[in-house]
Amino acid sequence: MKRLLPILSALLLLAACGPAEAPASERDAAESPAAEGIPPADGSLFALLEPADGREFVCDGMVPALIETRYVPHRMQCGDGSLYSVKKLGRWGLLDETGEEILPCLADFPFRLCGEGHWIAEGYSPPDLRTEERLKTLTGREICPGHESACIAYRSPADGGGIQVCTAGKGSFSMDPFSGTAPDQPAFPVFRPAGPLEPGRENPNLSAPFGHWNFSDAAGNLLAEGMEFDRVGWFNGEKLAPVCKDGKWAYLDAEGNLVTDFVYDACWDSQWAFDENTREYREISPCAAYSLTGGYAPVCREGKWGVIDETGREIVPTLYGGASPYPGGAWLADGDVWRLFLF
């Protein structure tokens, strides 16, 4: 009996303690609203994430300043010293990422850069000398005097074998054989016309039914064989690129595999396109999905925003009222408050 007492005592002690408890970090992760994609009880979506210190705007909308370059049309201007067009009461201004106002919200359209590297300030009032001097002093760039930037696309001939360059401007195309070094991209967008295109011929739009898009290397090898996209974005050194089919966007990896379904909506950028119904050109806005920036991209689904990573996973569920890209993270909006989050 005396020998059984220590054993009985040990069993009672174990029963009182119960099963071993999980570490606090594991409990917190399992119970966190972010783990289930459920907003916290206080109603603040920002409670799901840890914001970067001191990065907060109050505005109605925010998009990165854009620059159109020879090989990367509409590439986002992101990184240290990022500039953002912000909207208040329906008008646009220009701020840097610290919140310093470069131009007050008086423009009709977001600010962007032309192919010559000058600011396009459409509908800005008043476009006086002080405005121009302030832009030049703070950004090193002046207001565009009227340059027109062509959009460079790469045409893959129907018979294969190499790439030709399509320079789109004022509704017509000029084509030259691809020569020199290829753009610094493992695969870049190519347009395959449904029929022959001739230099100077009027073509309403680089989209179906006039043809389709894919990706190619300089030798003409298609990345996603058997796939036809209405529009595509760029890899820009990232692991994924956005692709569009029937008005919805998905993401393609560098092996030519779709890593998401076609579930996302166009969420930024604009273009003039030919409307087959009215037989007129009109502006379509928004018309594109974001490329990845530092491994992440904002995405929009049915008016709500989230963030995907380079695997195509939604690391931030589509619950937010707005989003804008930032290298290694994203700006997210809860109401009119925008905060920067780094992942």
Helix coverage percent: 10-25%
Mean pLDDT: 74
Strand content: 35-45%
**Arrangement of strands in the largest sheet:** 1-25-24-23
**Category from helices, strands and their pairing:** mainly beta
Show unreliable segments: 1-42
Q: End-to-end span in angstroms? A: 61 Å
DSSP E strands, number: 25
Largest sheet: 4 strands, antiparallel
* Morphology call: globular
Rg of Cα set = 25 Å
Order of helices and strands: HHHEEEEEEEEEHEEEEEEEEEEEEEEEE
Query: In DSSP terms, counting alpha (H) and pi (I) runs of 4 or more, how many helices?
Result: 4
Features:
mainly beta, single chain, 4-stranded antiparallel β-sheet, disordered N terminus
Q: Please, could you describe this protein's structure?
A:
With 343 residues, the protein is mostly beta strands. The chain has four helices and 25 strands. It has helices spanning 4-17, 24-31, 33-36, 129-139; strands at 51-58, 61-64, 66-67, 75-76, 83-88, 91-96, 101-107, 112-113, 119-120, 151-155, 164-169, 172-177, 188-193, 211-216, 231-232, 240-245, 248-253, 271-275, 280-284, 296-301, 304-309, 314-320, 322-326, 329-334, 337-342. The strands form eight sheets. It has a four-stranded antiparallel sheet, with no helix packed on it. The chain has a four-stranded antiparallel sheet with strand order 2-5-6-7, covered by helices on one side. The longest helix is centred in the first third of the chain and has 14 residues, at 4-17. The radius of gyration is 25 Å and the shape is globular.
